[in-house]
Structure formats: C-alpha cells, structure tokens
Amino acid sequence: MRVLGIETSCDETGIALYDSERGLLADALFSQIDLHRVYGGVVPELASRDHVKRLVPLMREVFASAGVAEGDVDGVVYTAGPGLVGALLVGGACARALAFAWGVPALGVHHMEGHLLAPMLEASPPAFPFVALLVSGGHTQLVRVDGIGQYQLLGESLDDAAGEAFDKTAKLMGLPYPGGPEIARLAASGTPGRFVFPRPMTDRPGLDFSFSGLKTATLNAWQQCVAQGDAGEQTRCDVALAFEQAVVDTLTIKCKRALKACGLNRLVIAGGVSANRHLRASLEAMAKGLKGELFYARPEFCTDNGAMIAYAGCQRLMAGQHDQSGIEARARWPMEELPPIN
C-alpha cells in the first residue's frame, strides 16, 4: 500500500510518501521558525495561512522525488490532532479533497502516535512491547506500548511539558525562539556544578512530571546573576547547562522507574526533545545499566514531519480503518482512545 501523509499540526508543513513494501519513498518539510521568531512563539493564524501556501508545492516535490505520478496512491492520511485547530483543518481539508478526487480512502492520524511510531522508520525498529517517552514542546508522557493502539499511560507532566519548559526558560533569559536548541547550544559550553537545580518530583513515588518549579528556580538564579552584574555569556552557558542537566536527570530517573514497573528493558524516546544529545547519552547509559535497549528516530524525524504520519496512517489503513466523512480536527485527543490494530 502506498500512502500520502500530511502533517500540519503546528508550525511545520510535512509531506511524505510511504510504501508498505518499499518503505519511505520521499519526504519534504517546511519549517515556519523564521515566520514566528519575531513574535517569540507560534501565531496560530499565521501558521494556518502558511500551511495553505506550502502544501501543494511540497506535494509536487515529494511525488517528483519519489518518481511517482501525482495521485498514484492507495490512501491519504493527515494529522487530525492534537494540535492547533486551524492548522489541522488546513491539512485535513487538503487530504479529504485529494482523497475524493483520487477515489481513495482518507484517515486522520493521531499526532503523538506518529511520534511514537517514528522509530519504526529506522533500519532496526523496536519490537513490542516497550516503554515510550514522548517528550516535546506540547507533551511529556510515559506510555507502555504493547502494539499499535495498545497504549497505557503511565505518567505525564502536570504542568509544562519538557520542551515547553526549555522554550520558556530560554525566553526568560532573553534567548531567541525557539529556545530549546539555544539552551542546548549554550549548555555545551557550560561549567558543570556552578549551578544546581532541583530534579522535580523524583523524591517521591510515581511517574508524573512537573517542570514549572524548575523553570522558576532557573529564573531566580538568572535574576540574581543579573542583579549582581554577572550576566555574561559564560553565566548564560552555566545556567543553561544546569537547567538541561536537571531536565535530563529527571527524565532519566522516571524512565528507569517506568521500565522497572513494567518489567521491560526496551525504551523508545520520541518527540522534538528526543533529539537532545545529552538526553540520548543519559538514557543510553541507563539502558545499558539495565542490560536493555534504547531506540529513537533520526534527528529529522524527531520533530514534526510527514513521514511519521504516513507510516502510522499506513498501518491503520491496512487494518481497514478510514474516515467515514468530513474532516477531523481535535485540539486535544487522549492517545488511549485510539482503537488497537492487529
């Protein structure tokens, strides 16, 4: 089965062609970072309008790159949520129109299921069951995965997601948007041990997260440095390192707990923050200590992309699922509501 995947949940327009026998044929992505940077964050209306502009050129690029005639697909899948409703509607409307014109089924895909399954696009994909850490700007969740659609939520953030905490902390320090990569860049030159921030909710049982207190602790430390006239580049680097280390340690501790609680030794990390090299190194060491395995997608498939949507949608289309009618767009959508497939 050959599937066209469309991703428009936020500020990236992603298009991909996936073939169930040949794998990923081609993909293309346009990021709106430059468009939103002046505002310090994503402006939903601007995001929606830019998706309208980018979809058709990207689709033509992908079909040409794959050497496939436009419309020579067996289905069209699109991100139906969670995400910005206006942006979702753009992708959904495009997908439904193409599916109608080409006479093929359409299907709305869960954005986080796409992230969760992105490592399946790699040469050595993980086998079920496993524990997944979904960590991005909008989500921080630990999920037990026994198969596609067989998800048990183990824990999640009670306030800010980890990626959101990165972006907000960067903004508080006067760093440009998007803040996560800026924090990581500065942390690479930081002095270990100069600042030490709390590892929130690791001193109590459970698998939930909270990053708002860590964000406040970082802000207080930074403001104190500013008041003392010590807000130079090296101090920025030192604060960034301490913040990054606190997030990485917290995620690592909770992942280790989750693996032990489930009796598993296979961990998958997905989402934008999973591209952080310090997080990967920490989880690699943790998994090795448990004689386990760590799986993740290549960096370009950690952030939002069309390939993950095409793959996830292809699995569900092959199981006989498709939209009955209309366009589905859901700002919030618990992943546990998804039906399992064999």
Automatic annotation (TrEMBL):
Cofactor detail note: Binds 1 Fe(2+) ion per subunit.
Matching Pfam families: TsaD
Localization in the cell: Cytoplasm
Gene3D superfamilies: 3.30.420.40
Residues annotated as domain Gcp-like: 24-311
The keyword Transmembrane is assigned to this record: no
SUPFAM superfamilies (alphabetical): Actin-like ATPase domain
GO biological process: tRNA threonylcarbamoyladenosine modification
Family in the record: Belongs to the KAE1 / TsaD family.
Descriptive protein name: tRNA N6-adenosine threonylcarbamoyltransferase
